[in-house]
Amino acid sequence: MIHKPWGYLSQFINNQTKRKKKMLGELYNFPEGTMAIGRLDVASEGLLLLTTDGKVSSEIRSNKVEKEYYVQVDGIITQEAVEKLKSGVEIGFDGKKYITKPGKSFLINNPKFPLKNHKIRDERHGPTSWVSIIITEGKFRQVRKMTAAVGFPTLRLIRVRIGEIELGNLEVGGVVEVYFKKNKKPFCVKQKGFLCSN
Description:
The strands form four sheets. Strands 1, 4, 5, 6, 9, 10, 11 and 12 form an eight-stranded mixed sheet that branches. The chain has a two-stranded parallel sheet with strand order 2-3. It has a two-stranded antiparallel ribbon with strand order 7-8. The longest helix has 9 residues, at 79-87. By secondary structure, the protein is mainly β. The chain has helices spanning 54-60, 79-87, 142-149, and strands spanning 2-4, 8-9, 22-23, 35-37, 45-51, 67-74, 90-93, 96-99, 104-108, 128-135, 154-162, 165-166, 178-180, 187-189. The protein contains three helices and 14 strands.
């Protein structure tokens, strides 16, 4: 797994010679055939699982596995908005209206993640707040669309958990090996400081 930094594409090979975006392959000497399981867009950060096994990828991307995000939003998000995020909101997907599946959401304190190299805004532009959003699906830019739908646009998005795997205190750009197991706790990180949740 990798702690994806802000500003990187979730890919390893540049398929467009004119593309100037940074890619994950620049951060580490990954094995040949490494691919991201799901994606985080360029402006998103946090936990990204990598594999060379397509079967593992399809299982983790299934709707049975929770994905948790810490989201900084514009303004002080209300409990009413949080309840809407839980029950499902209408977003646009593939040019059609889509109601997100019920999930989990709750207010959190500022998690104090390391500052990214691109400043979002400062206090002169008004207050911000943080919310945890837990979903099992993963439509294109879904979390950003969800917070916008309840009136609180996303300023910063960090994925902190996939299934039992937690980002923990892995440094930005850091890589740690993860082992896949087919049991009640299918994912386990074999390194001190990056343990599965209990």
